[in-house]
Amino acid sequence: MSDYSDDEEERGPSIGTYDGGRHPETNARHGKGRAVLPNGDIYEGEYIDGQRHGEGVYRFKNGARYVGQYELNKKNGQGTFYYPDGSKYEGSFSDDLRSGQGVYTYPNGDTYDGEWVNGVREGEGTFTYASAGVKFRGSWVKGIRVGEGTLMYPGMEFRGTFTDDQPLGAGKFVFDSGYEQSGEYVLAEASDEAEDDKPALKWHGETVKAS
Q: What DSSP element (H or E) covers 174?
């Protein structure tokens, strides 16, 4: 699913206004131009044979804005998408979706820097939780932490396996002071369920030792 519908080639009683180059044979939009759509969106950039193709800027009436590359009317290649809530994505697009390598900055200052597939976090990436000063670096599947990863806290880090966005199973804490503790995260008793409906976890650690 694309970020917003931006089909400026709407057919009907009105297709908005256009000022720019035309193909000498077909009279289709061609070269550089500016189109104002019936819904109030504006596109300024390059066209080939009537389609957005090349570099362009698309301004949505809700305040969103895309600056980057188009291919056959879709966001493809490198670009930056500015969202109305203040968030921003800088990186690669494919078929109108975040895909490939990119950085997403959230309204609260959190960031994700890594791989995307079909608009969601997928592959290797680093998520920074700005207010907590914590980072996660590791594997993502369909937007959540799954597989090997490292949680980096001030003064220490946890290395282990994640399941359904939480650490679960064997892992270890490594402290900046030169010590470490191996152990495992296990599911807690049913009475200890977390309030957010995620299963509560408990850390069973071995003796702390020098690294």
A: strand 166-175
